[in-house]
Amino acid sequence: MKVTRIFFAKCICCAFAASAGLFLFSSCVKANAAPANKISQQVQPPLSPEVEKLGRVLSGMSDRAKEAIPNGNPQEFLSDLHKVLEIEKTFRKDDVSLYYLIDKKHNIGADYVPKDLMPVKANDLWNVSRNDLSLRPEAYHALEDLSLAALQDGIKLLVSSTYRSYAYQERLFSRYVKEDGLELAERYSARPGTSQHQLGVAVDFGSITDDWGDTKMGKWVYQHAADYGWSLSFPQGYEDVTGYMWECWHFRYLGKEMCAFQKKWFGNIQQFMLEFIASWQSTPDF
């Protein structure tokens, strides 16, 4: 049986049907395997609680997110999901998760400051555009790995923006509103408390301009960032999803496994994956 980009919710001969579509078992029995007048008499196999939960979570996602998720075996999806959730258990317990969803609808308090911020100074691995940069330790060490790999290919990365406090983002957003008006400012700048930069895990590279992605540095980062756990946050053509215009320079550290999970199951769109993780964790098992 071949069905394009479908999702699961209810079991029908090992497939799950819902108004949003289906998520198909690879071993699905063809719908025409039995006479039509016999289908209603067949006893359907019960779904596992996790597969039922998966159907509920996916059915609540946006249509565009559903379109991004490919056909696949739900057990394979769940296996990959549990791998990244097990990794999350190893994160430090005195700070928010590296998977924390922050966007226009999900914020963090004005008092939040990442634990043990490490200064990001110019060194042999990277250049900086200013002297007051810092990152959460996990992101800092991942930046070291990324920068070392770039150097081995003859490229020295330029780090232009990292952690921003609530107060800093408040001043920045207010300035942009004065310059461009509220409607336009909200398309490219986060309100205070809703910026990934406040989490201390986001880096703006290079010139922070649209042409950076076409530079040698930009092309290298695009090709290799995920290998070191860095995910592009605001891809081109997804303003209706992320709430922000394309930012070719803005990458968030999530970890190698999460980047692989994002690429395999969510069309390589960070927002879809983080929304799914947040929904999964807030949805009761029964």
What quaternary form is this?
single chain
Instruction: Write down the Rg.
Output: 21 Å
Distance between the termini: 30 Å
Enumerate how many helices there are, as a single number.
11
Query: Beta-strand percentage?
Result: 5-15%
Return residue spans where pLDDT drops below 50 for at least 5 consecutive residues. Answer: 1-22, 24-43
Strands, count: 10
Give me the secondary-structure category.
alpha+beta
Could you give the order of the helices and strands? EEEHHHHEEEHEHHEHEHEHH
For the largest beta sheet, what order do the strands appear in spatially?
Answer: 5-7-8-10-9
What is the mean pLDDT? 88
Helix content: 25-40%
- Largest sheet, strands/sense/barrel: 5 strands, mixed
Description:
It is globular and about 60 Å long. It is 38% helix and 13% strand. It contains eleven helices and ten strands. A hairpin with a 2-residue loop joins strand 2 and strand 3 (21-24). It has a five-stranded mixed β-sheet, covered by helices on one side. The protein has a three-stranded antiparallel β-sheet with strand order 1-2-3, with no helix packed on it. By secondary structure, it is of the alpha+beta class.
Q: What's the quick description here?
A:
Helices cover 38% and strands 13% of the residues. It is of the alpha+beta class.
